[in-house]
Amino acid sequence: MIWNTNLRWRLPVVCLLLEVVMIVLFGVFVRYDMDADPHWVEEKAIKNLTTDLENEFYYRYPSFQDVHVMIFVGFGFLMTFLKRYGYSSLGFNFLLAAFGIQWALLMQGWLHSFDGRYILVNVEKEASHCGGSSCAARGPGAQAHTLVPIHQVKDAGGSMTIHAFGAYFGLTVAWILYRPNLNQSEERKSSVYHSDLFAMIGTLFLWMYWPSFNSAISNHGDAQHRAVINTYCSLAACVLTSVALSSALHRKGKLDMVHIQNASLAGGVGLGTVAELMILPFGSLLIGFICGIVSTLGFVYLTPFLESRLRIQDTCGVHNLHGLPGIIGGAAGAVIASIANIDLYGEEGLAYTFGVERSKTSWNPNMQGRLQAAGLFVSLAMALVGGIIVGLILRLPFWGQPPDENCFDDSVYWEGPSYLPAFPLMTRAETRPVSVAPRTRVCPT
Q1: What is the pTM of this model?
Q2: Could you give the CA distance from residue 325 to residue 330 in angstroms, rounded to a whole number?
Q3: Which of 271, 289, 377, 390 could form a disulfide with 234 if both were Cys (CB 3.0 to 4.6 A apart)?
Q4: pLDDT in tens, 98-135
């Protein structure tokens, strides 16, 4: 096959065409919600509000910004571990997320805030759509995310509809696009000292802001407060567990930066579904503990198995950070919902937490548990079907894919400084070089 990676006409045409479509659709369907409309002045008088601080903006904008930092800085830098792929990691993440926000605004808007004529947007919806864009940009993620409120499934932090969906959608695409000769780019698939440091910057941003991600669309008051506490506890427990497993699984007891960068975040993923539920702080610690173990074991054992046996090349370990913890979160949501009771939540709190209308006398915790389990299966089914469809589309030869021997290299698509061979590191005390051997992303056992 002749590989043509020149994007001079293909990329501009696709980007401009998509943006023109967005402009037309936004012009026809999208309008400001009342909180962002000049009629807010009249709305205040009708609702007897005395100050503009009651506007939704002042409640949601901090979370809105935190989620933006996660998507654009956190996930962007987390992917810079590849030593010659930093431009692409940050640049393409930026591009896909920017389109994903617009796409998610439309898809979720039609199903959640469509008043018959228009989609009404405000900061709260923007925060939700920014989170949804993290999977929407990779495929029909917005459609999966919209199934949650339609079927009354609780998934505030998106364990099922963002993380599990995004992971298995991506893995299915990777299976369809399997490259048998990708080992020709194996040398560029490794990291170097400074690329791992940049990736760790992404990890720290994600770790700090994950409580905002899981609580961004929760109800004001106790639910949002509880989501932050639960996520924080889970993340803290996950760090200790992943560090312990990383050392225990190495034959010399050393830590692997791959595990610290990724597995330490699995607690935030696994807690997403139950973030606003009454799991109590020890339950949060337990979920983080389990996710840290499962994620680290996945990096050591499952990633090589997926590539050697199932022909799935999971370069970034999304199965271990998003897929497995997402399933754990979905399963935990089904269990926690099924044991909810009035003693734990109170009568009003139970109805408010699960969004149950007083007239809906057929609802009970067991039904909610079944809905939660169904939500997980629906997300996975949509991920597999959508991944197959998108994978087949991406197999078409006109997208400008690089040949196997040129993968993981910015110079294929980016203009920049010439790439030199890896240079030796110098200590402050000495001028002699200290060689650093490149390593792969899998910890030896």
Answers
A1: 0.87
A2: 9
A3: 271
A4: 999 999 889 888 887 788 899 988 887 666 656 555 54
